[in-house]
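ARCHIVE CARD
CATEGORY: sequence design from structure
SOURCE FIELD: tokenized fold
FIELD CONTENT:
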């Protein structure tokens, strides 16, 4: 979605838009609505989800899907990149993206996942995975080293038709966790099977929440992390992202 925006922005780190704005509809509109309308018109119909005034530099945050760009009130410039707090060295853009991309734990359709418990299971993690994803396999090997965790695995077969067939076979297995681990850790492909699965529900949930890759991790506090992490990194993330 963002390619058309980046095609414009990458002409320079800062791009003048003084002559680019489209006229806003008649009537009194807020600055946020004027910016939204103008950018959507100029950027080839790309949908701007929200425009929000930031507390720094008079900039407005423009959210497009899971990405953020910035502009000023008059749309003289558009900025693509991270804003860093010079005092604390905190990446304010990344912090804001984490907030926007968070998925509330209570919103997860946990009955559409299979549950695996390690140790006392007191820590929570949800993972969206594809059976053919090499990064998922790497992550599962590291996950096997982590104790005292309950993992909800959402089958999200997006790589191929074969992924869908394997996902269905896993869900239809008598022991879903065992079938999953046999495939990911030992390369043992489950026998083909047919039953009702929640895979389409998972696909719809993923689309609604802009989950586009595997593995995607969701922690108890809603923090979303795309991609595989090591066992050591996962331990740190679990400590930081407990449910409040």
């Amino acid at each position: 979605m963002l390619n058309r925006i980046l095609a414009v922005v990458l002409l320079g780190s800062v791009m003048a838009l003084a002559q680019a704005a489209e006229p806003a509809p008649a009537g009194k509109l807020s600055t946020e609505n004027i910016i939204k309308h103008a950018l959507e018109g100029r950027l080839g119909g790309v949908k701007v989800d929200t425009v929000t005034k930031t507390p720094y530099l008079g900039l407005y945050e423009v959210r497009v899907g899971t990405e953020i760009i910035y502009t000023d009130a008059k749309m003289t410039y558009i900025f693509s990149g991270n804003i860093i707090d010079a005092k604390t060295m905190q990446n304010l853009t990344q912090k804001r993206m984490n907030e926007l991309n968070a998925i509330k734990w209570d919103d997860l359709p946990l009955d559409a996942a299979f549950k695996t418990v390690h140790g006392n299971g007191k820590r929570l993690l949800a993972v969206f995975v594809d059976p053919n994803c090499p990064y998922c396999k790497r992550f599962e090997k590291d996950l096997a080293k982590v104790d005292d965790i309950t993992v909800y695995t959402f089958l999200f077969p997006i790589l191929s038709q074969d992924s869908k067939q394997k996902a269905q076979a896993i869900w239809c297995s008598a022991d879903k966790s065992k079938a999953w681990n046999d495939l990911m850790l030992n390369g043992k492909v489950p026998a083909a099977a047919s039953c009702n699965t929640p895979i389409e529900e998972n696909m719809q949930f993923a689309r609604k929440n802009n989950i586009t890759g595997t593995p995607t991790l969701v922690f108890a506090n809603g923090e979303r992390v795309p991609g595989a992490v090591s066992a050591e990194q996962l331990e740190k993330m679990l400590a930081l992202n407990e449910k409040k």
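CARD ANNOTATION: The helical segments are 3-9, 31-42, 92-101, 134-143, 161-171, 176-186, 199-208, 231-240. The CA atoms of residues 116 and 177 lie 6 Å apart.
SHELF: design records, drawer C
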